[in-house]
Amino acid sequence: MERLRHERALALGEALDISTWKNYGSALNSYLNFVFLHDLSPEPTADRLSLFTVWTSFYIEPRSVDSYLSGICSQLEPNFPDIRKPRSSPLVKRTLRGCERLRSKPVRRKRALTLDDLARVIAHFAGSTLHDDLLFVAMLLTGFFALMRLGELSFPDDKSLWDWCKVIRRDTVRVCLDMYEFHLPHHKADRYFEGNRIIIQKDQFRHNPLSHFIAFLRSRDRLFPLSSPLWIMANGHVPTRSFFTSRLRRFFDASVAGQSMRAGGDTSLAEHGTPPSIIQALGRWSSQAFIIYIRKNPALIQAMLYSDCSERAHRASPSPRPVSRRSRSRSPLRSRFSS
């Protein structure tokens, strides 16, 4: 029985990702600070959570308060098993909706990278043989055309959030004449922890990511032939988020960040008429969240809807049955006149 309790404790500890667990801890600290300042009991009632929602909305974006409440429920549920009931009460929901109406600000998303932006970066590093330059270009093109998150290609700057189980390994890479592929370990949209096989074709509109990936791979295998991580800097460490964003700042302003790769690849596919279902599958989205990157351009929406409708019409229309010459020659009408 002690062994079972020990294993259960380990399983409960792994139920949440380490980054999510850290964010939930921050939400709990905010709630405890609220009840301490207002001399309240820490027991989470509907009235208390509603007041906490109003108080927190003065300091952070009200849209983020919803995740704070989820974190508080996750952290306090062992001590208050019925905390989900006041969390889902109409009082808390309506309070949150009202705070969003009163104090929410327009969302400022990062600008999506374009094919011209990629050409600018490639031209700058065209003659460079430095390993870190080759690494940056390969990461940029791979993240853009494979619709990858920066967190899937690099480590966070906070060392306490490093997870080696999410690192892409060199031995999963396969390079062919017209594409390259590797295995992406489990990510936040992977509910079954199976990972995904990422495939990048050679010809991507005006660019060839395969040639840049091969250049990086040769440098990497020459410097670190025995290292396990695929993406590795010249100092032998896995690249961090700041490694990538600091090089982006050489070419773009603060409106471009790590998520600009994923948004740029999404937008580029939509511009070229890729059906939404294909974009969602390529980006490994579990919902229609990818539309937020392209919804503000009516021309893109029209192109996507037209492409999607054409795809559905093609699937719905029955294919005509071919008629061979032999069957026509044996038709009853032809047989009667020939006789």
Automatic annotation (TrEMBL):
Residue ranges annotated as compositionally biased, kind Basic residues, are: 323-333
Indicate what this protein is called per its UniProt record. Answer: Tyr recombinase domain-containing protein
- Entry keywords, A to Z: DNA recombination
> Transmembrane helix among the record's keywords?
no
InterPro entries noted in UniProt: DNA_brk_join_enz, Integrase-like_cat_sf, Phage_Integrase-like_Recomb
What Gene3D superfamilies does the entry give?
A: Intergrase catalytic core
Biological process terms from the Gene Ontology for this record are:
DNA integration; DNA recombination
Keyword Repressor applies: no
Disordered: annotated segments: 313-339
Molecular functions per Gene Ontology:
DNA binding
**SUPFAM superfamilies in alphabetical order:** DNA breaking-rejoining enzymes (SSF56349)
